[in-house]
C-alpha cells in the first residue's frame, strides 16, 4: 500500500504500523469515544483485568483485549464509525446465569452470538452509556466478581 494511502487510513486498519491506544480512539466519533472511555474504565476496574493492544485480524484489526490471568474476557474494537465490544462466553458461564435477568439488548447479543469451538462470541455496537453499564454488569455476572466501582 502506498504511504499516502496508509497515512489517510484510520490507525486501526494498518496492520504494519502499530498505533497507540490514544491514536486508535482519536479516530472514533466524539460521542462514541466517550463510550469507549467509559467501557475501558469499567473493564479495568475489574480486579486483575489488564488491557493490551494487538492486531486481531479482519474484521477487528487493531483492537484492545481485556484479560484476567491471561484469559481474554473482552475485545474492544475501535472501528471509527462503529465501535464494538465482543465477549467470548463459555457454555458453562451462560448456563450459570438467567438470560431473563439480562436487559433485552444484552440478551439479544447473547442469543445471536456465533458459536465457535464451545464459545459464544457475542458482539455489541456501542451506542449509549446505559448500554455500556449493562455490558459491564453482564461481564461482572459472567466473572462472578464485583467491579471496583
Question: Which word captures the global form?
Answer: globular
DSSP strand count: 6
The CATH topology, please?
A: Aspartate Aminotransferase, domain 1
Strand % is 25-35%
User: Can you tell me the CATH class?
Assistant: Alpha Beta
Per CATH, the architecture is Alpha-Beta Complex
Widest sheet: strand ordering: 1-2-3-4-6-5
Could you characterize the architecture of this molecule?
The chain has one domain: Aspartate Aminotransferase, domain 1 (Alpha-Beta Complex), CATH 3.90.1150. Helix content is 38%, strand content 26%. It has 6 helices and 6 strands; from the N terminus they run αααββββααββα. A 6-stranded antiparallel β-sheet has the order 1-2-3-4-6-5. α3 runs parallel beside α6. It starts with a helix and ends in a 6-residue tail after the last helix.
Please sum up the structure shown.
With 149 residues, the protein is an alpha+beta fold. It is built from six helices and six strands, in the order H-H-H-E-E-E-E-H-H-E-E-H. The chain has one domain (3-143): Aspartate Aminotransferase, domain 1, CATH 3.90.1150.
Features:
Aspartate Aminotransferase, domain 1, six-stranded antiparallel β-sheet, 6 helices, alpha+beta, 149 residues
